[in-house]
Amino acid sequence: MTLADRIAVMKDGELQQLGTPKEIYNKPNNMFVAGFMGSPSMNFIHTMVDLDSNDNPVIKVVGTNEQEHHIKLPDSMRDQDGKKVVIGLRPEHITEQPGEDESVSTQLDLLLEVLEPTGPDTIAMVKVNDQEIACRLSPEFDVSVGQVAPLHFDLSKAVIFDAATEQRIAY
């Protein structure tokens, strides 16, 4: 990403996305591009859009001990009721600290299954909706494998994909 002003991402001879490194990293056109950029790559949480009792679009996520949360989506997702979607969220947007805008930050208590210290940060593996996802934690966050820790999901950075087509439908 540091060697070019623009990047073309190809798959099977077809152009998937052309853009600046920042555009491709933050606003990938599809799940292939999202998973291609970054290390660890973007997390994909499979879920479905529902409407809550106030007619707000939400998704359900389940963490440790079957802890269930309903996370509000943008109002533009209301017409997606009942649709299977994939929430894309990069590891650096799942941390021990709330995001910049706490109104779009959701906390889940999650079991730390793997901790991988890398020096400037620690990569933690946890499960959400029975899917393994990576989180990027501060090396000062004093936790151990097997411990349940409060982790914050900065949903202002989430990308929403159609589960069937794998194309981006919102960010």
Automatic annotation (TrEMBL):
CC annotations in GO: ATP-binding cassette (ABC) transporter complex, substrate-binding subunit-containing
Domain MalK-like OB fold residues, every copy: 38-94
Signal peptide boundaries: none
InterPro entries given in the database record: ABC_transpr_MalK/UgpC-like (IPR047641), Mo/tungstate-bd_C_term_dom (IPR008995), OB_MalK-like (IPR040582), P-loop_NTPase (IPR027417)
GO MF entry, a single one: ATP hydrolysis activity
Keywords: ATP-binding, Nucleotide-binding
Pfam families: OB_MalK (PF17912)
Highest taxon, organism lineage: Bacteria
KW Metal-binding (keyword) present: no
Name of the featured protein: ABC transporter: ATP-binding protein
